[in-house]
Amino acid sequence: MSVPVVVAVVVSYNRAELLGAALDALGDQSRPVDRVVVVDNASTDDALAVARQHPTAPHVVALARNTGGAGGFAVGIATAVAELGADLVWVMDDDTIPTPTALSALLAARDAYDGEVAALCSRVVWTDGSDHPMNTPRRRPGASTAEVERAQEAGAIPVRSMSFVSMMIDAAAVQRSGLPVTDYFIWNDDFEYATRLLRHRVGLSVPGSVVEHRTKKLGATDADPGPRFYYEVRNKIWMFSRSDALSFRERVLYGGSTVRRWLRTFVRSSDRRTLAGAGWRGFWHGITRGPRPDTEVLSGVGHAALTVARLEAGASLPAPVHVNRTAASTGSFGTGEPLDGQRFSVLLPVYRGDDAAHLERGFRSATVDQTLRPDEVVVVRDGPVGAEIAAVLERLPELTDVPVTVVPLPHNLGLARALEEGLAVCRHEIVARADADDISLPERFAVQVPLVAKGYDIVGSAIWEFEDDEDERGMVRVPPTGEGIAAAARFRDPFNHPSVVYRKSAVAAVGGYQHLDLMEDYLLFARMLAAGAHAQNITDPLVLYRVGAGAYARRGGRRLLASELALQRTLHEEGFVSTPQMVRNVVVRAGYRLVPERVRQAGYRRYTRSRGGYVPDDL
């Protein structure tokens, strides 16, 4: 059995002394943790300095504002899995002090259990050694005798839920189920997340793993929360009505116990007026609102929001899949330097949503139809495909004398990760992008490739839109040229992605593609320009761009709005756009995402014309 990479995640807020004690305890583990992540929720005390100066050398994520426990743990888990390669994520608050054998006991139970375990938790005690009532895991109702005995053989108890006070999560479960809901802020975020993780998977409580939860008081879950009762009520309603963490039977069971606990809290409260007001607001917001997307909630907190967006894009994967990055970190490249030759690769991704006939036509256009043919074609099959596409992929080598390499990914990873896999396979410095449903005109590579060979790092072109019949063409989208490329990039993508030809080293130098719905190309190109890439666009259309059904629908919606916010935030943090530019972009571009599709289509055509786009009949 391979040794798992364990990354501990500590969420910190204004408890510098306790944070130091928690980090000391992590450093004293009999089985050392491999990495430590500290997510600081904009502390106003010395917590951030304590984290940065601690001997455990934690990876510190300093958020620009307090996102609560929910946001902190979402960021921490995403950082551990997406950036640090964790196999297991061990999460805890900054007032959690693990005993020296806490980690080794969790791992021992995991190894001893006969089967897969999605999450494990420790026994949580208070400072006097008694069990802490705030962190008591719920035993799994209806667990069979065999399930109980299997857990007992591993020194554990099967449970249905657990808290974020010493919870160890398998990265595969994170990939499948996603992250905590950040809009919960505090309370019930761990209950919702744990029950979501464990609805169809195994969770174990390990009494032999002990941590101390140093709360000020030994309080139970029905202690008077005052105004924070708002979060308890709102989040419980969200969970029961909008989350798939619980079955119908469990909703009834836990709903009844929740109401009883609320009544006990109200009866025991010394300030029932405050409690009633907070509860009513929580109830109203719980039924009239829903949790916002994580990237929207995390707007403005820093680069961590992009990490969350990247991980959540793969949350539906059946299993985690390793992706070879073209570059592990940013670097430099020799912009403007000529190359010795013009050998080049074509990089073409395909997934199950593509059309087989379109794929074959697009492939022919990029190979046999070209006046300057590529030296290889790398086709990335992004996950399983249907029989028709599979048949075309098998036939590709018969369609051309150009060498063809098909890179099969076992699961759909999304465009950015598929392109990263493909770039890793491309053998030549010059790489031309092509899409499965677009058509490269015969002179495309003969025009673009020599320019890249002479010194340009990226060269795009105008594209000619069409719907079904490639002979019935519509709008020509003309991109900016020369110095106008960098200026336009502050407000919009200055390249038409399926038209670009670039140097592989220039892409690698800025970290390659990173997932962001329909905007991974914009983010990449902005970073290339910021790094000094020598860029140009051809104003003649060299690609026929298929604008099929749903093209304008895909440019809108809350999910794409969240990507837009994450993009603008990232470009601002990296200094590519100024604050006024970012505000302008959010107002204009985010607003465009939310208008009805018909309005969006009309606005797009008008905007394209204002930027030099035209229909040939207009000339």
From TrEMBL:
Pfam families in UniProt: Glycos_transf_2
What name is this protein filed under? GT2 family glycosyltransferase
What Gene3D superfamilies does the annotation carry?
A: Spore Coat Polysaccharide Biosynthesis Protein SpsA, Chain A
| UniProt keyword annotations, A-Z | Glycosyltransferase, Transferase
Q: Which InterPro entries match?
A: Glyco_trans_2-like, Glycosyltransf_2, Nucleotide-diphossugar_trans
Glycosyltransferase 2-like domain mapped to chain residues: 9-138, 345-478
| Family, similarity comment | Belongs to the glycosyltransferase 2 family.
Q: Which organism is it from?
A: Isoptericola halotolerans
